[in-house]
Amino acid sequence: MDFKEQIAKQLSKSVNMDFNSIYEMIEVPKDYKMGDYALPCFKLSRVLKSAPDKIAKELSQNIDKGEYIEKVEQLNGYLNFFLDREKFTLSVLEEIQSKNEAYGSSNEGNGKTICIDYSSINIAKPFHIGHLLTTVIGNALYNIYSFLGYKCVSINHLGDWGTQFGKLIYAYKHWGSKQSVEKGGVNELTRLYVKFHDCAKEDESLEDEARAWFKKIEEKDEEAIELFSWFKEITLKEVSRVYDILGIKFDSYAGESFYNDKMQTVIDELREKNLLELSQGAYVVNLDEYKLPPCLILKKDGATLYSTRDLAAAFYRKKEYNFYKCLYVVAYQQNLHFKQWFKVVEKLGYDWAKDLEHVAFGMVSLEDGTLSTRKGKVVLLEDVLNKAIEKTKQIIEEKNPDISNKEKVSSQVGVGAVIFNALLNNRIKDMVFSWDRALNFDGETGPYVQYTHARCNSVIKKAGEIKQKGDYYSLDNDEAFIVLKMLYSFPRTVAEAKEKNEPSLITRYSVDLSQAFNKYYYEHRIIDEDEKGTANRVLLTKCVKTVIKTALKLIGIEAPDQM
Ligand code: ARG
């Protein structure tokens, strides 16, 4: 039931204006004491040629309240609507009960495909905490869009191409061994890579040797390809451990190298459409008209670039998936890169350029200073997750040592804490990762929300099966009403999170709902001798449990029944 629609309907009987315009004007006041909905009458001033105060006063006297409005008040040029709480309450409970875990979902995306390029790790590089945001934001968007009926394709656009792989092969052949790499994994590959750079500073000829090896990869030399594929395999094995912990899966691992044979057609098309310009020996697409620096397509030596690969990938994805939207969950440091090549697609004349979207986010650092990959001071994501699980285990050991499947719960809560913390703030904000903040069971944290879910579960279990049909009166109080309003706003929150590609809206929502429920819980007994009253209070608890569970699931977090 759309209550805003009901109000707009009643209003449109008194105001000579089309329904949609009225609907758009209606707001939800921050303070419930100012009503459940409000119409800022200054928006009508010009049309009705009257002062907001006067309009509000007149409307408050004349409006037909209809079925769902209990009371209309006017204050400072606002018309405030108060819903009939009983009707509202019963309608919300009914809706959640009937839809259950599908409450908040929709089929708006049916028949539409969303490609989501996220995590997109680099081969032979450590999977560090800097990748946390792209990985969890991308996964949350995948869940949110799927929940709204879209078909989603998760793509890990691997960084598996570039001269660095020539360097790595050279380094491996000089300072590495099969055993050392098998044993040390990506760590050893990083060591070799760093060693190459140190030595190349002394001896410039190393760069030529590395180039020669890279050329061999390009020419598909057997040994070069074998080593290159092996490095890739090792990296993927390590990252999939992390994806397993996070519960994330990718539909495609088509990385940069996948587009080696798919760039020429794009380059040809750019040339045919006269968009390729020679600039100091390199080929670029001029973007002066957009006040952007030119987009580099081919280097002086004819080599392709990161942007050439992204262009080829976009054309491939359009053809393969016919996406409705293609999202790129990549740090804001790459803003310019995406702006530029999106414009190249536009200049080529493809209107789907507007469907490419860079979902940018800020940087992650640790409390003891920012990350520096160079100095080897990286914090591995896997270590962070394992440490979170370990710390949670200790806390559970202290607080609730008797629960069953401690291991599993520790993992759900520890991992949940890290994900939650990463998705709590607006994605564009830089974040400082703090253990205390992430694992705090009381603050705005994953464990707090999970704990509220477990609390609901224990209330429901204690109440046992309820045969009695409930009655509204037991929920007739402000605390319950606020919980119900939160529940009611869930579908709107999900829709907005999708609209803005902002999972943090759901994270925040889960905190607000938990706080509202906990306030209710402290001020009202849920189970007492009054069976009818108990029935509805337990029903409310069930609805809260369902919605918290769904909200957490959307952001990629599990909700244990006990913790
Ligand atoms: N591997 C890249 C990096 O770590 C991110 C790739 C993002 N996706 C893309 N299609 N460009 O910076």
Main traits of this protein?
alpha/beta; three-stranded antiparallel β-sheet; 21 helices; binds arginine
What does the model show?
By secondary structure, the protein is α/β, with parallel strands linked by helices. The chain has helices at 3-14, 19-25, 42-48, 52-62, 85-99, 132-147, 164-175, 178-202, 205-218, 222-246, 264-272, 306-321, 335-347, 381-399, 406-422, 435-439, 446-463, 478-488, 490-500, 504-523, 531-554, and strands spanning 37-40, 69-75, 78-83, 113-117, 151-155, 276-279, 282-285, 295-298, 325-331, 356-361, 364-366, 431-433. Helix 6 (132-147) links the parallel strand 4 and strand 5. Helix 18 (478-488) runs parallel beside helix 21 and helix 20 packs antiparallel against helix 21 (531-554). The longest helix has 25 residues, at 178-202. The two termini are 35 Å apart. It binds arginine (ARG). The site of arginine has 8 residues, from strand 9.
Short description:
The chain has helices spanning 3-14, 19-25, 42-48, 52-62, 85-99, 132-147, 164-175, 178-202, 205-218, 222-246, 264-272, 306-321, 335-347, 381-399, 406-422, 435-439, 446-463, 478-488, 490-500, 504-523, 531-554, and strands at residues 37-40, 69-75, 78-83, 113-117, 151-155, 276-279, 282-285, 295-298, 325-331, 356-361, 364-366, 431-433.
